[in-house]
Amino acid sequence: MTPPDHYDAQPPAGYPAEFEADVVLRDGATAHLRPITANDADLLVAFYARVSEQSKYYRFFAPYPQLSDRDVARFTQVDYHDRLALIVTVGNEMIGVGRYERTGRRTAEVAFLIEDAHQGRGLGQLLLEHLAQAARENGITRFVAEVLPDNRKMITVFTEAGYKVMREFEDGVIMVEFDIAPTDTSFGVMQAREQRSEALSIARLLTPSSVAVIGASRREGTIGNALLRNLRDGGFTGRLYAVNTDTEADEIEGVPAYPTISDVDDTVDLAVVAVRAEMVADVVVDCAAKGVRGLVVVSSGFAEIGDEGRKRQRYLTGLARSYGMRVIGPNALGLINTAPGVSLNATLSPLMPSRGRVAFFCQSGALGVPILADMVGRGLGLSSFVSAGNRADVSGNDLMQFWYSDESTEVVLLYLESLGNPRKFSRVSRRLAGRKPVVALKSGRSTQGVPLGQMVRRSQLPAATIDSMFRQSGLIGVDTTGELFDVAQLLAHQPLPKGRRVAIVSNSDALTLLALDTMAGCGLDTAGEPRNLSPDASAEEFGVALSEVFADDRVHSVVVIYTPPVQSNGAEVAQVLAAAAAGSDKPVVSTFLASRSVPEELRVPDADGGAARGSIPSFLNPQYAVGALAKATQYAEWRRQSDSKIPELPDIDTRGAEDFVAEYLQRHPNGADLDDADRQLLLSFYGLSVLPSFPVLSADEAVQRAADLGFEVILKATAEQWRMRPDLADIWRHIHDEDDMREAWAEMTRTFGVAADPARAQFVVQKMAPPGVPVVISALEDVSFGPVVSFGLSGVATDLLGDRSYRMPPLTTRDAAEMVREVRAAPLLYGYRGSDPVDISAIENLLHRVSRLTLDLEEVVRLDLRSVLVGATGATVLDTSIRIAPNEKPRQDAPARRLT
Fold first, then answer.
1. Origin, by domain of life (predicted)?
2. Confidence of residue 276 (pLDDT cuts 50, 70, 90)
3. What mean pLDDT is predicted for residues 318-347?
4. Could you tell me which CATH number the domain at 692-768 has?
């Protein structure tokens, strides 16, 4: 088998490479989607020859046994604007094609043809999504199609797409027509399909019936030998094969051996690859010929070594996907599935954790081994584990899609070194967190560092953006691996808290004080006075205190601290604690004999011999116990409010704004900062108004403009170097008459040293706004995150302290509310020291409108509402700045489904 031809072909002029995509089909296999070219003539002819006569009839409404040369030329030669065709390929074969042809200024006719053997795999829906996205970019807003009444599959493609479809029967043909603008329904349909297909692609990797280790070795200490041993000793229930070109033996480590994978006289579902990097591409081709469904590439020598390795890694990924295979790695530790019917340990770690309810995704291979050891040491059971190494293909997003519907997983842990697609990560993790707790540790937050092997777009945003995104998505962010497992221990065994009030039962005053200090720092409240028992308190005394707190409706969670007296093993205390907690819906954490696990005495055994729900976790000290409880409490609060919606905004003119941006870029093809009039116009499309300001170049001009406005104005220097000075010398307020204006002019030109050339200060006259608290709302189009909206109070102090909140659009009502409240200076908005509270809803309204604008218009690369005064009954925007530039790198989470 040879690599696909498109890897070597040079695309024609005008070829839209941005329309190419690797996609996951309904059955979890992958394929390549791309625009057609004239070089695809033979590919099209061969494809058409495999299509049944019925499918041809459905496409052309008449018998059409073969394509003429004229047909082939017409179908393969397109302009990619008014006429576009997208094809889906697997290896060197085309399996589907969809096209549109413009029939009006904003209307196009759409049609599909899918090879019969591949119908039912979701190709029609995928092609429609990608055609619609391309059409929108080319100014088309509506699709029409003609479908024969008995072509039910194609009718289903249109009706189940999530668009509002109009159907009309005419002359024996169903006329279908629909707008292709994305809607909440169409987004929901696409995301549900994305989740199902990506989850299935991971299930194919985690549940193989047969595994081949390519590069297996009988020499101890080698990677190939370790992989083979771990698979064998881990109890893999399927068929296991060893592949090594240098061996003529019939077996290696008791496993049947073959010189190549093609020699294996059986099907192979999963290949674990441990050969030299330069040999991996040939292995991929051999695996494709064998029908392998997925690869775990342990081999190093890829992106982590530099440019040559990056090219090798890109080729590996594209090659595997083009043949329908997903790839874990390269440079990966591997994957584990503890399901009794699988028992798969395809990693370099000899440790096989017990069966449990916690799933783990880890990017670092080096950290994967100690992580597994820590889990085993704590007795924390595992459902599945993937260490993705360079993460060239399979990522944390894919695993979260799988765990969303995996009934054996109740808690998800993530160790992340980079975010390849932050927008998709935010969307997928938020959906998952709404169903199951997700605990995440992100390394490199302070430096934005990325390991060499991971090819990602490098963000320019501050580290606080990651923390904000975690909060927005409902993720439980932690700072250390120890905290990661502490929180997991609690979530895997205890229910979520229903509130913040915590009761403490303890026989150590010193440890009680530590617990109280930690609670205060974490925002937890005490439910009455702690039940402080004597150091030698008996089990009966503990039982009485525990009965009281579990019966108290004010108590939401319980912390139990037990430090045993001399010559006591605590068994009796454990019994009364377990009995008191049994059946309670209040989570319990303990510091029991300083154990860092689920002690045997506090364990409720499950069917697999592990710790079932209801088991009581123990922590080394009360600080760790309370810290984990605080994280669980914050998550529970988010979960209770996670149903907040994206608000409907009236008076939004998206089409007008898009037309304005397109026209502006025609005038400024390299991008530019908008002048005042253009800023006012663009913002008006989103219901945002700015208090007008008028440039002036002399005192006389300033006086005249102030008189025109009826005085009660300000004089402001808007040059960037003088804005927002700590001494507020850039603004002269309360100008009531001509004398005030001339005094203001003289003083400000003297202060800035621009008396001879006032234009350097860029003075403007503006009507006085109602009094209020000054705030700033900004949006930035980041190359990695896409649009990010920030909020803070105006002033040098908040700038120096970085007192800003961040969120990724779209914003729900809860997102906007949290943005306002989580900045440290927020008390100034709520009547600080007797001042009047401001109109918080007005701030939230501005946040929603800015969010919507930046989400709709990715060419708006920067937007600042630089000065907004928020009063008791509204907000006044005083100063803005906007830059529009061409979109050189499209956002990574486009509406149409694709692997990124």
1. Bacteria
2. very high
3. 95
4. 3.30.1490.20
- The pTM score is 0.90
Architecture per CATH, domain 200-489, reads as: 3-Layer(aba) Sandwich (3.40)
Residue 416 forms beta bridges with which residues? Answer: 442
Task: Domain 17-181: state its class.
Answer: alpha beta
Q: Please tell me the total number of residues recorded for the chain in this structure.
A: 900
Q: Name the DSSP class of 332.
A: -
Distance set, CA 113 to CA 26, 60, 116, 306, 496 (Å): 17, 10, 9, 42, 51
Query: Between helices 481-493 and 622-640, what is the axis angle to 10°?
Result: 60
Tokens 């000065």 correspond to 867
Cα distance between residue 414 and residue 388, in whole Å: 12
Question: How far apart are the C-alpha atoms of 516 and 126, rounded to whole Å?
Answer: 55
CA–CA separation, 66 vs 341, rounded Å?
49
Q: Which residue, among 701, 703, 675, 679, has the nearest Cα to 689 in the 3D structure?
A: 679
**Is residue 864 over pLDDT 70?**
yes
Using N-to-C axis directions, what is the helix angle for 152-159 and 123-137, rounded to 10°?
A: 50
Q: Is the alpha carbon torsion for 264, 269, 270, 276 positive or negative?
A: positive
Above 90 in pLDDT, residue 343? yes
Nearest to 321 by CA among 25, 11, 10: 25
Cα angle 833-839-845, degrees, rounded to a multiple of 5: 140
Q: Does residue 1 register a pLDDT over 80?
A: no
- Identity at 135, one-letter amino acid code: A
Structure token digits, residue 433: 């967190």
For residue 821, give the nearest of 797, 849, 792 by alpha carbon.
792
pLDDT tens digits for range 436-457: 999 999 886 554 455 555 555 6
Best CA proximity match to 672, nearest among 886, 885, 857: 885
Q: Are 829 and 820 a contacting pair, CB within 8 Å? A: yes
Q: Which residue has the higher pLDDT, 608 or 228?
A: 228
CATH number of 495-641: 3.40.50.261
Phi and psi dihedrals of 804, rounded to 5?
Answer: -130, 150
Tell me: the pLDDT tens digits for 791-842?
A: 999 887 677 788 999 999 999 999 999 999 999 999 999 988 878 899 999 9
Tokens of 517: 């200090």
Residues 6+ apart with CB under 8 A from 667: none
At 71, phi and psi to the nearest 5? -60, -45
